[in-house]
Design goal:
Length: about 190
Amino acid sequence: MTVTPLIGLDRFAVKQRYTMMVNRYEIRALGPNGEEGPILALAQQKRMAFKEEVTFYADEQRTVPVFSFKARKRLDLAATYDVFDAQGTPIGQFRKDFKASLLNSTYHLEAAGVAATGSERNMLVAILRRVQDTIPLAVHYDFKDAAGNLVMSSERKWGLRDVYTVNVPGARLDGRVAAAMAVALDALQAR
């Protein structure tokens, strides 16, 4: 059984690697001053897939899967995605709220006693992102539980390359589910 170091982690980075046919992501530990640490997982998503599926691996050769997420249906605008551990056991899920997302991208997230709703932090940026595609905007998401407590945040650094800082206060949310959600925020928004 492979245990990922994302379990119990309250802060990490997600970096996109650009390639022609697939989206690749690195999940890296972050030090106390924001410095990047070792790679914790690598993910790969095929572009233009009819049924989204992303697998996270422990190694560069993609031989040791550690977790994954997969859409329940093909080509669904409000699809639900299940997050699985390395053995294929469900550990969480998330779904896009299509109606709410027309103005401000909104997701619902559930895992091990945690339920949260996340949306773009800045409504103006959300609207600008819908009308222009040429300027990479700093997009931030906050996921809060029913009591209004922050469960997870994903903050995109301004720049041409997609780099996100993910915070999971108190590590209440399984880091694998947080990493899956963070990658989905980028991959499913077609960045």
